[in-house]
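Quiz preparation item.
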């Protein structure tokens, strides 16, 4: 099928508000240009380029780095068959050239099927932020809020990539932040304080970063730098990884460390919430407790909208409790995160069952 036929079939110019800002299957700000014998021919060539670039960006977003090279990029016609719709946000043309910026929305089931054929793991869970708390180690001490910490200001000033899977947020250094975690509490924080910060910043979870210059802060730009990464979801800090950042004449080491740490955190998110296509659907037994029938109807509607009506089977219904069987293509963390986007969450209740509850 020719690309111009696709353009004729799809209603292209719709409002940008049609896109959800956290839709992982929407790729924005794709620029492409081409020259040809006519503007029409140049337009088709440019659109082919936009399709290829957007698909590569989508793959980078959803698939972990170690598997990206194993995916064969489909042809423009094959990619076009997975496009749900698109928008041309700006364009300019002459008799022999065409230039445009596109927003392309993919059909999520077509993309899932394609990844399944390629036998790669992927994650399509987003809509949650990751709170990053960047400390600086100076000798035997750590500092966070002190003006001597260039990593806090560097993270605060860094921008989220438009097509990144996970949004990263950084504390703003207000009074409540300084009460919740102090300079010397990088690894001795109070769990309830971290939970309060996660809630305040509307994040899914938090990570502690400790930047440790190998030769002192005064030689920061000329010596290797270690970034120690810890998760905080347990009652104690859980060590994840150490990133070694080498100095470079082309980049400030603080900026370079932020860029490389972001790349690692995005990949870690993909690994944590990845789905293996070959595993197929998994079945989860869940309980929903409700004070009134109206609340049950509301909860059931939200679940059907976010998981799919066909994926939910009602096993039993009592006065204030329902038992469901949910078929879901992903692990329990992915299901929990999908529910959290709708204001609900999961917790184990024993005997292989989980409870769905309102996440306040």
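Solution:
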């Amino acid at each position: 099928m020719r690309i111009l036929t696709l353009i004729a079939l799809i209603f292209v110019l719709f409002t940008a508000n049609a896109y959800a800002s956290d839709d992982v299957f929407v790729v924005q700000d794709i620029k492409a240009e081409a020259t040809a014998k006519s503007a029409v021919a140049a337009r088709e060539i440019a659109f082919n380029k936009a399709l290829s670039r957007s698909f590569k960006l989508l793959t980078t977003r959803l698939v972990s780095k170690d598997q990206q090279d194993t995916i064969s990029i489909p042809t423009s016609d094959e990619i076009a068959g997975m496009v749900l719709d698109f928008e041309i946000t700006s364009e300019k043309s002459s008799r022999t050239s065409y230039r445009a910026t596109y927003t392309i929305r993919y059909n999520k089931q077509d993309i899932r099927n394609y990844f399944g054929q390629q036998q790669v793991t992927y994650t399509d869970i987003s809509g949650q932020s990751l709170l990053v708390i960047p400390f600086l180690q100076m000798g035997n001490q750590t500092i966070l809020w002190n003006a001597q910490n260039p990593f806090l200001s560097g993270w605060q000033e860094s921008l989220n990539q438009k097509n990144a899977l996970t949004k990263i947020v950084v504390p703003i250094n207000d009074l409540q932040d300084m009460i919740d975690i102090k300079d010397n509490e990088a690894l001795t924080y109070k769990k309830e304080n971290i939970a309060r910060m996660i809630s305040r910043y509307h994040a899914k979870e938090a990570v502690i970063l400790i930047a440790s210059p190998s030769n002192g802060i005064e030689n920061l730009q000329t010596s290797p730098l270690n970034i120690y990464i810890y998760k905080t979801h347990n009652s104690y800090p859980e060590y994840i990884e150490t990133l070694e950042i080498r100095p470079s004449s082309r980049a400030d080491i603080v900026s370079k460390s932020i860029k490389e740490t972001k790349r690692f955190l995005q990949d870690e998110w993909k690994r944590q919430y990845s789905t293996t296509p070959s595993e197929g659907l998994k079945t989860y037994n869940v309980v929903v407790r409700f004070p009134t029938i109206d609340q049950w109807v509301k909860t059931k509607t939200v679940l059907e909208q976010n998981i799919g009506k066909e994926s939910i089977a009602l096993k039993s219904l009592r006065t204030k409790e329902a038992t469901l069987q949910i078929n879901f293509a992903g692990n329990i963390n992915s299901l929990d995160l999908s529910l959290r986007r709708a204001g609900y969450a999961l917790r184990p209740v024993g005997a292989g069952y989980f409870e769905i509850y309102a996440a306040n």
